[in-house]
Amino acid sequence: MDINLVEDTEKLSLESEDKKITKRKDYIDWREYFMATAFLAAKRSKDPSYQVGACIVNKENKIVGVGYNGMPIGCSDDEFPWGKDTLSKLDSKFLYVCHAEMNAILNKNSADVKDCTIYVGLFPCNECAKMIIQSGITEVIYFSDEKRHKPKYIASKKMFNAAGVKYWQYIPKNDKIEITFSGAAWQNMSPSK
Ligand SMILES: O=c1ccn([C@H]2C[C@H](O)[C@@H](COP(=O)(O)O)O2)c(=O)[nH]1
Ligand SMILES: [Zn+2]
């Protein structure tokens, strides 16, 4: 058989094989991606009791701000206090820690966060609720509402209801989203190869 004909036949059969290839099925959906981003940011927190993360997303599904609870810039994580039941109120973390929502809003990489959605690990406190409302965010998707009985959090809901900010709890499809650097499908390209 003519060599060109063999090559053409091989090419054709490869092309028809290619047509059978469909997209991956086990990719994470947008909501999982945004909540997982909030959870990943929370891993940066130094707070021993609550690690909170927040991720702000615009109407085009673009992330425009991420933050976690931490000390303000210039206030050392090692010098400022992390305790809460301290003898002096001046030594309690409450006076110093910047909340995740506040950091995410202030870290925004867009002109504003109007009509955006914020994904948060913990339902926002009253101070964060005020910032969320004033910044124009219109939807809050939270993971945990465990502090809901505290006045601060009841106040948040009162304000969200009055301001027309929607809020609802995220129920994960998967309890675990794993990131394994060494297990990547394309590991042939990893630096050690
Ligand atoms: O809206 C909120 C509420 C709380 N946080 C952070 C701030 C603190 O670091 C902890 C809460 O600590 P407690 O020990 O429960 O007081 O969570 C936040 O980022 N956003
Ligand atoms: Zn807060």
Structure described in brief:
By secondary structure, the protein is an alpha/beta fold. It has helices at 3-19, 30-42, 100-106, 126-135, 151-163, and strands at residues 53-57, 63-68, 117-122, 139-144, 166-169. The mean pLDDT is 91.
Characterization of the model:
By secondary structure, the chain is of the alpha/beta class. Helix content is 31%, strand content 14%. The chain has a 5-stranded mixed sheet with strand order 2-1-3-4-5. Strand 3 (117-122), helix 4 and strand 4 (139-144) form a beta-alpha-beta unit. Helix 4 packs parallel to helix 5. The mean pLDDT is 91. The chain binds ligand LAUPNLSC and zinc ion (ZN). Residues 47, 49-50, 52, 69, 84, 97, 99-101, 122, 124-125, 128 line the site of ligand LAUPNLSC. It is an enzyme of class 3 (hydrolase). Keywords: Hydrolase, Metal-binding, Nucleotide biosynthesis, Zinc.
Give the topology:
Layout: H1 3-19, H2 30-42, E1 53-57, E2 63-68, H3 100-106, E3 117-122, H4 126-135, E4 139-144, H5 151-163, E5 166-169
Parallel strand pairs: 3-4, 4-5
Antiparallel strand pairs: 1-2, 1-3
Bound molecules: ligand LAUPNLSC and zinc ion.
GO cellular component, one term: cytoplasm
EC number: 3.5.4.12
Keywords: Hydrolase, Metal-binding, Nucleotide biosynthesis, Zinc
